[in-house]
């Protein structure tokens, strides 16, 4: 167990250190409050010293923003290639996370945040962290993410293809982009399911919130098995399946990628970028060495019923960023003894794809999202 130590009113204090992204234990912790100047806080944080906030909650948020502005003042170095731009962007993001992650708050042993004007964060923390196990110190930045996730979980995200809302949990990939969900909602179902919808089965690998499993069930597939490696995703998918009254039609299981048996349709929307996630929260975005993509391709034939298909949902953002070539993808498909029956393309519509201030704008603007219909090669 990692513990942070600090001195307050001349008395030694300690609390358990908690970081979802496994940020290292701060070397040193000092107390900060409403009198702390942003320049001093920023300097401390850059030097690796954590600041345990004891002042007003909203002032802490303002301080965090002021520290963020100081980080952003340093212009990025000109990069020569999209790949270099991507890696520089990730380095800058992790530097930002490291520095801003040094502003800490204490959560009491029932997750009460005992700061002036602090919101009640107990339910949000319970959802994200599970039952409390004593007083913990967390970064304010992480806590703000936990609070935001709680709001999303309460309100849900509108999924037009389902005509209802999906409720993401903390750390679970949220279907904020609807273009890929629409692809799954409209692609022609494999003939084997159309001949006998009543006995049709599908697998949804890496189900996240369960959104694609729900779309398949709503399209008439009788029985869908949804898997995920993330315990949070499994809990979240089960809850959404229950909300949508699809409990008898969708079974959620994990942590293996493929469930037992074979299906008419195997859908997989792996993380789109081959890179290492910095923590469990990024597991839906980055697929180290394309391992999930490769495992899906390698196992597909052995999990398809005769006449069945695999649907790979993938954007070509990795190609525009120079992280993977189209040929590498086609080679992986061929190595798995699969053939491409069809590819259905769409363009992202989410606001970020139009945001010219995004450092990856050029690649995002060129991005195409595709549903690859795959079948065993003859
Ligand atoms: C891009 S998200 C897709 C989530 C959901 N299917 C959707 O379309 O909104 C990828 C999902 O794959 C899961 N995942 C990553 N690696 C996995 C693995 N090896 N086995 C099973 N699931 C995995 C992640 O936890 C995440 O939920």
TrEMBL record:
<feature type="region of interest" description="Disordered">
    <location>
        <begin position="69"/>
        <end position="94"/>
    </location>
</feature>
<feature type="compositionally biased region" description="Polar residues">
    <location>
        <begin position="1"/>
        <end position="12"/>
    </location>
</feature>
<dbReference type="Pfam" id="PF05175">
    <property type="entry name" value="MTS"/>
</dbReference>
<feature type="region of interest" description="Disordered">
    <location>
        <begin position="1"/>
        <end position="23"/>
    </location>
</feature>
<dbReference type="GO" id="GO:0036009">
    <property type="term" value="F:protein-glutamine N-methyltransferase activity"/>
</dbReference>
<protein>
    <submittedName>
        <fullName>Methylase of polypeptide subunit release factors</fullName>
    </submittedName>
</protein>
<keyword id="KW-0489">Methyltransferase</keyword>
<dbReference type="InterPro" id="IPR029063">
    <property type="entry name" value="SAM-dependent_MTases_sf"/>
</dbReference>
<dbReference type="InterPro" id="IPR002052">
    <property type="entry name" value="DNA_methylase_N6_adenine_CS"/>
</dbReference>
<feature type="region of interest" description="Disordered">
    <location>
        <begin position="345"/>
        <end position="378"/>
    </location>
</feature>
<dbReference type="GO" id="GO:0032259">
    <property type="term" value="P:methylation"/>
</dbReference>
<feature type="compositionally biased region" description="Basic and acidic residues">
    <location>
        <begin position="345"/>
        <end position="358"/>
    </location>
</feature>
<dbReference type="GO" id="GO:0003676">
    <property type="term" value="F:nucleic acid binding"/>
</dbReference>
<feature type="domain" description="Methyltransferase small">
    <location>
        <begin position="198"/>
        <end position="315"/>
    </location>
</feature>
<dbReference type="InterPro" id="IPR050320">
    <property type="entry name" value="N5-glutamine_MTase"/>
</dbReference>
<dbReference type="InterPro" id="IPR007848">
    <property type="entry name" value="Small_mtfrase_dom"/>
</dbReference>
<keyword id="KW-0808">Transferase</keyword>
């Amino acid at each position: 167990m990692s513990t942070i130590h600090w001195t307050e009113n001349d008395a030694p204090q300690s609390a358990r250190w908690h970081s979802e992204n496994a940020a290292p234990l701060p070397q040193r912790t000092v107390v900060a409050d409403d009198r702390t100047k942003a320049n001093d806080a920023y300097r401390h944080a850059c030097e690796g010293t954590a600041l345990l906030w004891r002042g007003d909650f909203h002032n802490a948020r303002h301080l965090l923003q002021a520290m963020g502005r100081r980080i952003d003042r340093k212009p990025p170095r000109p990069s020569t290639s999209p790949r270099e731009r991507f890696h520089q962007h990730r380095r800058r993001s992790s530097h930002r996370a490291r520095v801003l992650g040094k502003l800490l708050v204490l959560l009491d042993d029932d997750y009460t945040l005992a700061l002036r004007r602090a919101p009640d964060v107990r339910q949000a923390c319970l959802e994200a962290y599970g039952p409390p196990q004593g007083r913990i110190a967390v970064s304010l930045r992480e806590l703000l993410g936990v609070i935001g996730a709680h709001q999303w979980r309460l309100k849900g995200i509108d999924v037009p293809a389902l005509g209802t809302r999906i409720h993401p949990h903390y750390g679970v990939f949220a279907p904020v982009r609807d273009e890929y969900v629409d692809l799954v909602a409209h692609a022609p179902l494999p003939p084997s399911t159309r001949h006998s919808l009543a006995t049709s089965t599908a697998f949804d690998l890496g189900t996240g919130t369960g959104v694609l499993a729900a779309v398949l069930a709503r399209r008439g597939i009788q029985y869908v098995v949804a898997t995920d490696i993330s315990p949070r995703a499994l809990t979240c998918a089960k809850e959404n399946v229950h909300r949508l009254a699809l409990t008898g039609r969708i079974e959620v299981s994990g942590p293996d990628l493929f469930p037992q048996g074979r299906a008419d349709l195997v859908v997989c929307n792996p993380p789109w970028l081959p890179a290492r996630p910095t923590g469990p929260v990024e597991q839906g975005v980055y697929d180290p060495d394309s391992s999930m993509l490769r495992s899906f391709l390698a196992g597909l034939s052995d999990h398809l019923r005769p006449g069945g298909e695999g649907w790979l949902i993938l954007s070509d953002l990795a190609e525009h960023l120079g992280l993977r070539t189209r040929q590498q993808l086609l080679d992986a498909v061929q190595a798995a003894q699969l053939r491409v029956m069809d590819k259905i393309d769409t363009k992202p519509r989410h606001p970020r794809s139009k945001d010219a201030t995004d450092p990856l704008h050029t690649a995002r603007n060129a991005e195409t999202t595709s549903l690859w219909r795959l079948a065993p090669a003859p």
